[in-house]
């Protein structure tokens, strides 16, 4: 008795969908970007508070400082396990403390539009960190809505306002996911910084962000460097203005 062979139907195999991997930057390269931003920030503040804003070169390079600081912060907040290790909370505490320390000098230098407003850049990074924690790291729609509310309210009271915070949040999403659309979103938000900066030099920092994953530098990290340097710079310039009143008008 012959048995009829049954046809063998091989299961259809599907290749796993290709997903983008998170953006990876060497720690030394990230440190180099931070020091470059600190250098340009120093030049920008000296130009504004000691030279009367007479150097267009220092002004233009100074517009790239916020995006670069935002990129460094975004990368650290997007590290795997950062929230579980309590990084967001520690960063928020440091930014609040040093932001408050910087405020008297910031106000003394006239870095405001009306009264206490806006708060200095450390509060911009603080709102970014708190919003990122609630939106990206906490579960539940209540946390997401609270993060959005914080973004809206906090963005009205800090330097560079909503465009800077939206840019930083988009950079976090890009670094976490590797999806280029988030980089484009960050670039789009940075475009609106032009209304704040009075030019579009902030966009010039984005090629550096794209280049960063492909550059490997070995630069040791100096802890608390940024937190301590910013208020020290403001107080030094404030003291210089008090010693030499002509610096107030350039």
Automatic annotation (TrEMBL):
Segments traversing the membrane: 49-74, 95-113, 119-136, 148-174, 180-203, 224-244
Signal sequence interval, chain numbering: none
Keywords: Membrane, Plasmid, Transmembrane, Transmembrane helix
InterPro entries, per database record: TraX
Source taxon at top rank: Bacteria
Protein name (record): TrbP conjugal transfer protein,TraX protein
UniProt gene name: trbP
